[in-house]
Amino acid sequence: MNLYEYMGKAIFRSYGIPVPDGYVVEKESDIRPFTKPVAVKSQILLGGRGKSGGIKFAKNENELREAVKALLNSKVRGLTVTKVLVEDMINIDRELYVSIALDRSQRAPVLIASAEGGVEIESVPKEKIFTRRIDPLIGYSDYIGREATAFMGLQGDVASQFRDILSKLYRVFNGEDCELVEINPLVVTKEGKLVAADSKVVVDSDAVYRHKELSVTDPEKTPLELEAQSKGYAFVELDGDIGVIANGAGLTMATLDALTLHKGKPRNFLDLGGTDNVDIVVNAFDLVLKAKPKAILVNIFGGVTKCDTVANGIVAAKQKYGIKQPIVVRLSGVHEDEGREILRKNGIDSYPTMMEAIERVVKLAGGA
């Protein structure tokens, strides 16, 4: 789960990492009285906002209101801005970069730091980037911070503050079950203080259940996509007329491609995943039916997902929802003969190969 900047900064603040004072605005009435120069920052889940006009600065109340009005509901890098962060402007002297990321190849978090902050780390020459694997059994140690500050040429109080932030950033990484925590830029102010001017926090999606306080609503998702997400389905609405249920993201994508190849138009992407639960199949039909397709294609290659379980789910869904649209099923794999027999007894077409099922559903959708 990728968090918005304001959410990441709230976490930083709770761990004692310095961040600018600020507040979130979702509508113009949320704007607070102007007291000092501020930055108005669009909250989207992509970087590069400054270059795309997604960050504005205000030195008086009129400029603040104009900046908020210009950004709210605008498009920045193709994404709709539903929130902006208004925070105190920072008196910047220089900018640093620091992050801790999970490196799966090393099976450990890796610290990345550079004195070249404020730009994409990929654009910084390798010789100017400090990297150090952190043993997950030992954790972060002060000597890593000393190595980093020496590499970056930091001295005195700035070096001390930097090491303190590194220690706290590792605590964030562990405590919040993160895959990535990044501060870019980590600003050194003209007063000699370090402040996290931005935040990027990515929480492991498999650990989100431990963080009930976190909730990110993607403004680009449709209401039906959000409903599917809340129920644990990978679901995307498309602009066609054939509903699609398949198991596995790869098979689902192949199904969409094959439908398009045969002049069919998919209405959705729905990955059933690996399941042996009739209710999961039934609930998948509920989502697809809400997309109002002309016909429904179910493409199952049974392994973990048993073909007879899916067949029972299809029959249960047809009875529960009174489905009028034609349903075409491809069943192949574990218990496929039993699954086809269940479908045959209930008047539902089934085929052993994907292409046979696709040709049939395209024909039915065209005549629906």
TrEMBL record:
Q: What does the record give as EC number?
A: 6.2.1.5
Q: Where does ATP bind?
A: K41, G48, R49, G50, E87, I90, E95
Any one GO MF term held by the record is:
succinate-CoA ligase (ADP-forming) activity
Pathway this chain belongs to: Carbohydrate metabolism; tricarboxylic acid cycle; succinate from succinyl-CoA (ligase route): step 1/1
The biological process GO terms on file are: succinyl-CoA metabolic process; tricarboxylic acid cycle
Does tRNA processing appear among the keywords? no
Cofactor(s) for this UniProt protein: Mg(2+)
ATP-grasp domain segment(s):
9-244
Alphabetical UniProt keywords: ATP-binding, Ligase, Magnesium, Metal-binding, Nucleotide-binding, Tricarboxylic acid cycle
Cofactor comment text: Binds 1 Mg(2+) ion per subunit.
Q: Where is the signal peptide?
A: none
Its recorded reaction(s) are: succinate + ATP + CoA = succinyl-CoA + ADP + phosphate; GTP + succinate + CoA = succinyl-CoA + GDP + phosphate
Q: Where does substrate bind?
A: N247
- The UniProt annotation places Mg(2+) binding at N184, D198
- Top-level taxonomic group: Archaea
| Cellular compartments per GO CC | succinate-CoA ligase complex
Q: PANTHER family, per this entry? A: SUCCINATE--COA LIGASE [GDP-FORMING] SUBUNIT BETA, MITOCHONDRIAL (PTHR11815:SF10), SUCCINYL-COA SYNTHETASE BETA CHAIN (PTHR11815)
Quaternary structure?
A: Heterotetramer of two alpha and two beta subunits.
Family recorded in the similarity comment: Belongs to the succinate/malate CoA ligase beta subunit family.
Q: Give a short account of what the protein does.
A: Succinyl-CoA synthetase functions in the citric acid cycle (TCA), coupling the hydrolysis of succinyl-CoA to the synthesis of either ATP or GTP and thus represents the only step of substrate-level phosphorylation in the TCA. The beta subunit provides nucleotide specificity of the enzyme and binds the substrate succinate, while the binding sites for coenzyme A and phosphate are found in the alpha subunit.
Return the protein name: Succinate--CoA ligase [ADP-forming] subunit beta
Q: Which gene codes for it?
A: sucC
